[in-house]
Write a structure and sequence with these properties.
142 residues; alpha+beta; CBS-domain; two-stranded antiparallel sheet; 6 helices
Length: 142
């Protein structure tokens, strides 16, 4: 089975981030422009949080806050769950399902390597299953 390191190799490890002092409006705008649903929150290149569309909906919209005056730090998740690059796609999917999260930072020796989404992991799992099916079909026809 593939590891998340393999997933990062194929999808790329570009990190799109924002600072905790930025407005939530700017965070949502950046997500929209980048066609993503979460941002890592970095302060001096250190991972301090993650902000998602869900955070925006639940912690800004439903509470009647203004996105232009609310800072990212006020709504970000700061207790961040992350994994090392050696974790398999299946292990990460189990973690994300159990914890009910959709994004998982990948870190090694305190260094942020990238971020995977549940969609990235599902894609990798489907590719792996297609490979297995192809191998079995080849075996049966030979």
């Amino acid at each position: 089975m593939k590891t998340v390191k393999d997933v990062l190799k194929s999808k790329g490890n570009k990190i799109i981030s924002i600072t905790p002092e930025e407005s939530v409006f700017n965070a949502i705008k950046l997500m929209s422009e980048s066609k993503i649903s979460s941002l890592l929150v970095l302060k001096s290149s250190k991972l301090v949080g993650i902000i998602t569309e869900r955070d925006y909906a639940w912690k800004v919209i439903l509470r009647g806050k203004a996105s232009k005056t609310t800072q990212v730090r006020e709504i970000m998740t700061s207790n961040i769950l992350y994994v090392e690059p050696s974790k398999t796609v299946e292990e990460c999917m189990a973690i994300m399902t159990e914890k009910r999260i959709r994004h998982l930072p990948i870190m090694e020796n305190g260094e942020l390597l990238g971020l995977v989404s549940i969609g990235d992991l599902v894609k990798a799992l489907i590719e792996h299953q297609k490979f297995i099916i192809s191998q079995l079909e080849h075996y049966l026809h030979n």
